[in-house]
Input
Amino acid sequence: MSSYILPTSVDSYLSGICNKLEEEFPNIRAVRRSRLLQRTLAGCKRRYRHPVNRKQPLSRDDLHIAFLRYHISADHDDKLFLAQLYFGFETLQRLGELVWPDVSRLQSYNSVAMRHTVHITADSVQYTLPLSKSDKFGHGNQVLVRHSSYDDDCMTIFSRCLESRDLLFPHYPELWLRVNSHIPTRSWFNGRFQQIFKNRGFSGHSMRAGGATALAGAGAAPQLIQAAGRWSSDEFQKYIRIHPFILQAIIHDAPS
Output
């Protein structure tokens, strides 16, 4: 095995190898699941393990810092960034579901949210995510936030951004648009993100981890968190960055 390949990546390589060779070797998946191979991989992971480097989750207090900085701004890009930050947190979105990749050949309209899918009621707003890892049938997923009594209510922040966007680009189909009419990119979002949270151990992925942690702290059932984040497996548990004992204390002390 090459020294630069992490043991944790070997599982993915083997799955790809099985997928490519299954027609020629019908029993390859049985070999993949063999006891010898499983024990070898487990021992390799223990011997050559590396510390996991995870970004810190955002909290609602962290979001409020951005809110205080941008909520009175008349600039459309400020409204856009704030809306994406809050909506990404509340609906547990991946950063890639909100912005485009920086590399143009990787940009695809298959992953771009559209304005016509937005549906607003008196107490909620939702729109369709056109593509996600858990969407097996290609119908998209609905992401929704409800109105709250907080001063930094996500629905109000989104509505302000949407009003500005519709005024600037009433005939454009894309939902998220910058003032220059371009879809926001990862570098654009991260640049603004780091202006606020520089050197604090956060990244764009901290929205998703923070949203999952906030739901857990509010006492949400694991199945609800998994469904809200559109996880197809129990991988969502890695995103809840709070010790179980502390989590239980938070839930126990919360008002009913």
Summary: The chain has a mean pLDDT of 84. Strands lie at 119-120, 124-129, 141-146. The longest strand covers residues 124-129.
